[in-house]
Amino acid sequence: xxxxxxxxxxxxxxxxxxxxxxxxxxxxxxxxxxxxxxxxxxxxxxxxxxxxxxxxxxxxxxxxxxxxxxxxxxxxxxxxxxxxxxxxxxxxxxxxxxxxxxxxxxxxxxxxxxxxxxxxxxxxxxxxxxxxxxxxxxxxxxxxxxxxxxxxxxxxxxxxxxxxxxxxxxxxxxxxxxxxxxxxxxxxxxxxxxxxxxxxxxxxxxxxxxxxxxxxxxxxxxxxxxxxxxxxxxxxxxxxxxxxxxxxxxxxxxxxxxxxxxxxxxxxxxxxxxxxxxxxxxxxxxxxxxxxxxxxxxxxxxxxxxxxxxxxxxxxxxxxxxxxxxxxxxxxxxxxxxxxxxxxxxxxxxx
Length: 351
Ligand SMILES: [Fe+2]
What we know:
By secondary structure, the protein is an alpha/beta fold. The chain has helices at 34-44, 64-71, 145-154, 179-185, 194-201, 212-221, 233-237, 244-252, 265-268, 286-289, 310-320, 332-338; strands at residues 2-5, 14-18, 23-27, 47-52, 74-78, 88-90, 95-98, 101-107, 116-120, 123-125, 130-131, 134-135, 164-166, 177-178, 240-242, 258-261, 279-280, 301-304, 326-329. It has 12 helices and 19 strands.
């Protein structure tokens, strides 16, 4: 196996390659470094088969969408990842083949709801779940310190002590650690109970990263801000959230809401299906097509997407356009399907 960290900075991108087949994967590639990655791949004579993001990043734009377009690599993320154009959604226990190498997926949420760690041989790529002598913050939208503690102590710390740990970030110049060292020496975790960990993580008082919405929303939507004016964090925080059972109940009530599905066409008719009666308007077309919704201005509009994140952007955009009765389906079609609520799939779909 060829294994390299390619950025030599605080933000880590790993190259994993099978020397037999020359097949390669990039984990957490940065958009501004695409030229470097393509040069390294060419230098080693590797074919990029997969680009894997360990989670939806808030501090840098991902290169996955561009690399997918440029060289046809398949984009891999956890099933709760909000973005469109992900070729393969993975879950705990799945394997991603890179030539003859098997990359095992561990679901490790907490920093974000879509966090995964990757195990290849004796190396663990721990994303922003477990850092060297630290852990990824859990105070962004969708973060969960308790889930993070459970993922680290229940999954990562059960790996052999000699497992080498390669995080997605390091701010102190470290390159790797081991599970054994982190169990003994990680100051956030060693000897700390779940309750104490949650207390600690909920009171870190860290400022939000600069331009978080300008980074997050393009990563969540695979759109640029020249396509869409993204709502501000304050506008996003005002979006009303409705759970899948609440929306299901509202649909059975006397004046049901309009379901506005902002996913791409292939997702609307894809594996998760859509809510019966949903009106499809992809997020990138929403500002231009909002006029079509004028007739529904007095009705409640529930905005829906895959994971409930792009739809929150959609809901904030509609609110900004003066629609007053707008809410977001929390957890999106992933939760809707997990709750086994009614779904319609297009009949002409294969498989
Ligand atoms: Fe992160």
